[in-house]
Amino acid sequence: MNIHSTLSSLTTFCSVPYDKNKPMPKLCKDCKHFLAPKDYTKYEYGQCAKFGNINLVDGKIEYQYAMMVRKFKCKDELFEPRLG
Hints:
Strand order of the largest sheet: 1-2-3
């Protein structure tokens, strides 16, 4: 299973029913930890700067996809709005 099919299946899990009588859910794209992809039309490929793995040899950080973080780690509890 490649990353595109994994993210595609997670899209279903990260979707919630819309009800205009309830407040809008917090969106990853509005969080200060969200790293937008280079292709801004594909937010599902955005990453979360709050979660990642660091390579102990070269120090590079590989951030996790925001959609996976939202489903399994963050939910709404760790959301921090962008300032400005």
